[in-house]
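Pinned message: reference record for GFA family protein
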Amino acid sequence: MGYCHCASCRSWSAGPVNAFTLWKPENVKVTRGAGQVGHFQKTPMSDRQFCTACGGHVMTHHPPLGLTDVYAATIPTLDFKPGVHVNYAETALPMKDGLPKFKDFPSEFGGSGEMVPE
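Predicted structure (tokens):
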């Protein structure tokens, strides 16, 4: 769990930062309205999913990483405990919370792994 500060996530979430939770795809299940989930393949890395009835953002599959990002706000019972900031070099909302801040992504996810100061 963490925060993404990239311009793409900010635009998609309509906010200055996007709170994410990462899951193995087999651990993600749409329990209501599965037939109303639309898709938009923004990049080979990101298959965005949204509700075709209300337009709400639901999740993004990241096939190359084998992970699904379920937006923290879509899980009302989730005890959100962020552990990291990614794409902090693009931040529009500096956050001084003591969490690690990656310039882009950790190297395990194809980024530089470079950290930036708060």
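Pinned by admin. Summary line: Residues 2-109 form a domain with the Metal Binding Protein, Guanine Nucleotide Exchange Factor; Chain A fold (CATH 2.170.150.70).
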